[in-house]
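note to self: dont lose this again. the chain is below, predicted strucutre after it. 93 aa total, dont forget to put it in the shared folder this time
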Amino acid sequence: MTRKEIVQVLHDIMQHHLKLPSMEAFCEDARLNEDLYMDSIMILQMILHLEVDLGFEIPDEMLVSKDFQTVGSLADFLEQQQQEPSVVKGGVQ
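---
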């Protein structure tokens, strides 16, 4: 998935699944908390959609706040996750 596709997927999740009322502020520089008014529960819901609906593997230990500050930092994180070797329960594949 390209970066542009990742950003579009984030937009779709935020608009259609989370139904954020602040989508007019959506851009790569938009801060998830301050500009899009996402709280920690909404961010967890978004992660769940990314994992279940799109097959992203996001291990709990990889969740750090710096990756969830802006749409762009989240897109960077997801791009990086695509390039990491798959982790299988019980060890690295």
